[in-house]
Amino acid sequence: MAWLYLILAGLSEMLGVTFMNWALHQRKWWLWGLMILTFTLSFGGLELALQTLPMGTAYAIWTGIGAAGGVITGMLFFGESKDWRKLLWVVVILTAVMGLKLIS
Predict the structure, then answer these.
(1) pTM for the whole thing?
(2) Which residue, of 11, 49, 95, 103, is most buried by count of CB atoms within 10 Å of its CB?
(3) For 80-99, how does the pLDDT look when each residue is reduced to its tens digit (9 = 90+)?
């Protein structure tokens, strides 16, 4: 169950950053509310995962999911560069996350 909490926490982190970017550009109060909600869920999921998983592994996976998801979201929704080298490094991050899962 800890791994599920951790994955959901990472995805919530990615959504939090996405809502933050939208809120900064659109100045809508409900976007700020969604940002706060998703970051709260993210930290809550990380807290639940840390009750079972080692801190170093959990934190690395949480930030990896958030970072890779943030880059992909930026490419899909905010017109950021889709350079193949950027995608290559996202694959490296995701591979490292999977590797940490396999050895934990």
Answers:
(1) 0.86
(2) 49
(3) 999 999 999 989 988 988 88
